[in-house]
Design goal:
mainly alpha, 52 residues
Length: 52
């Protein structure tokens, strides 16, 4: 799943630079952040996506 345990700001920001529409980025950030919160894990399980 994730390369290293724990969230890292540099990976989070790098994932936001992917060439995807702004609306899709916002939706993915919210969905992946909620996934991390509800699963009580530091990673959403979708590395490379915004918010993960």
């Amino acid at each position: 799943m994730c390369q290293t345990p724990g969230p890292r700001l540099d990976r989070f920001l790098k994932n936001l630079t992917r060439p995807v529409g702004f609306g899709v980025k916002i939706r993915l950030v919210i969905a992946n952040t909620l996934r991390k919160i509800f699963s009580l894990r530091p990673c959403c399980g979708r590395p490379g996506q915004p918010g993960c």
